[in-house]
TrEMBL record:
Entry's EC annotation: 4.3.2.9
CDD domains associated with the record: GGCT_like
Entry protein name: gamma-glutamylcyclotransferase
Keywords linked to the UniProt accession: Lyase
Amino acid sequence: MTSGTFLYFAYGSNLLRERLLIHNPSAVFECVARLDDYCFGFCGESRLWHGGVATIFKRPGRHVWGVVWRLNMADRDILDWQESTYNPKEVGVVAIGDRVLRCRTYVRRGHSSKPSPQYKNVVVTGAEQNRLPEEYIQSLRSFTDNGFQGDIPVYSQIMKEVRQQNVCV
């Protein structure tokens, strides 16, 4: 790890570059990676997202795909604030070539719940943006959402950024 930086394994809404950059402008894509012996799910109730949010559960033999981001140490407190309803955890993830990287990630505890369609869309869009395995993207799409149809300001902000990036490509 480069001095003054840390690695962060994102598997939920922070898969999407535009979401992560809202509060973490130093984030740089490092690689796609796999967290073994965990599975992905949604839990809790987020007031921001009007439904469940992403988490990981210990499950031998399963895996979670995600993105490793490199951030400045100065942004670690900001990321901790952004993920304040989660518990930080150090994990080893497997990158291409079986390279193991030590990363910070976040785990939320709580009952299983359904995400809003907007939150689920941010997660799926991030998985597509980073070209996670198609089978894994399909598994993310297969989660049932809660049908929330109201306005979610952070979602509108993120998707506006995504549309602007797509125009500039």
